[in-house]
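ugh ok fine here u go
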Amino acid sequence: MGWSGFARIDGVTWQWMGQSPIGNSTTLLSSEITPTSTRFSVLAGSVLFNLTFLSPIEPSDWVKQSLPFIYLSLEAESIDGQAHDVQVYSDISAEWISGNRGLVATWQTTQTDSSVYHRAQLQSPEYMTEINNIAEDSTVYYSMQTVTQLTYQTGQDSVVRGQFQSKGSLTNQQDTNFRAINNDFVVLGISVDLGTNTNFLTPVVWGLGLVRDPVIEYTVSAGSTITQNRSSYFWTEFDTISDASLTRSSFVQIDSFLADYSNATDRANKLDQQIMNAAQAVSSEYADLVAFGTRQAMASSDITVAKNSDGTYNTSDVKAFQRDTGIGQRVNAVETLFATMPIHLYLNASLLGIHLDSLLQYQSSGYANAYAAPDLGNAYPLASGDALDTHSRGIEDTGNMLIMTLAHARTTGDGTLIKKYYNLLSTWADYLVSNALYPNGHQAMGNTAAAQQYQVITTVNFCDNLQISNPFIAQANATTYVKLWESLASSSGHLLPTYEDASSSDFALMYNMYADTLLKTNLIDQSVCIPLSSAAIYSSQASYYSNLTQLAGKFGLTYDNTNSNKQANSAWTLFTAGSIASVSSVTQNQLIDMVHTRAGFNQTTGDFPLIYDDQTGNSSTTNGLASPGQGAMFALLALT
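structure:
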């Protein structure tokens, strides 16, 4: 993505962002990452620039949370006590709108009463299509509130940037020669002349947004070919058809977004402080992980509504869809949503509910399988239905769905999903009874008989790394399940990765014990897994993990030692840390520190990955770079 920034100080040009042959290089003095922001301090000669990239997180305001815009702000200050003549500039290129740089783009600049914004889109957008992880039906916006000495220009990168380098201002003209993105790369630039001073502490603020409408095509049920074109929730702020036109609504929303910068910054700072204070109470390393994971977790979802027949938005039907970013294009991949769950529970558990609703509705009518679907399709943003119809994932996905549905209901106090989809949830519980040796159970509907029947079914997922080789015992009741599990799954005070194989040196992280800790279901204190008291069960596992860390790779324990790849998983490591948090802060911090070592490792390319080699830290492009599964970093915070 082309995104550049320059400053002209006393007639000399400096580059503070991007890769361009124009200007002198600045010096990076410091950087800071918070849950909502990334901040850099850079030195350009005798002027210090403080840059902030703010991605607002507004978990209780779905209009703002669904608005796909971020802020870039710049503050300048003289460090030598002398006044300096300063102009600043930033641009984006049309590379934001297509992964095929040979396609033709169009662009336009608009001035409103309070702002200037550029927008660009493909001449022939491709509906619901991605190329190289870039949406082909999007419109990119680059904007700024109207301020004194603001100028703008569109055109070839060397021309527009050269204009700023030589004059310190732009021409307020538009290049109308629409062409391929990579043909004399067009940039959309905005500059401001700050004048001559020693301090320029009033921030210069650019707004960057990438808008699509609709954002999701959703197949409403497995038994139907009916699809919905669903829009981002922020469009509901415009409740008339005329206001909801793309052009008018865009500039109204941009004006509102830019005007909200000061308040948005205050809200972001308060949220950062809340999250970081809570995380610091665990450890500074844990606070880092929470800061690294927050935006990755929140950036991969679209909060959506469908339209009524009259063109208005149905605000009673809100559903969210998560892209399996960093792994593929699967829609609401259950295992990734399960990993994301802690951040949703911590920030606003209703966010988890609207993700679950889209999965539950699809499967509530006409879905042929007795187990839960693994996703809603593999070509985001087309939520066309289960793309991986496979029984091999049935136990894990079914257990995850039941756990998440219960976690949502208990955290919010809202039992609507359980009531609405009770028959489906009951079918899944029956499936686990028939297909697993592990128990599960919680009474949510006042159905005492069902509660007794399913008393220990959910533990199916607590130890899902156990490889079952024993035949299913028909009509087994809860007591039989527990005793059978005790006899097969435990040895010398810890859980085995393979039933009845105490001689093996293999191990696995029993990360799904986290669900028992999170939900306080106390299933494991019924002597499940190990015939000891609850505290002893968790303590013995904690001691076992602590011993294993002595043999671990530099970047952590492999989550399943029976897998020859020897891969660590940041999400499952944090789930494991959360499961033993109350009994061993030492082991908890050992696990956290391993993930922290990888998160701060700068000798591999790519964003904070979900899965990586435990010895080298290497991770492939399909192993969760920038994955929303890093919401698992909130595993300890969600416990409170």
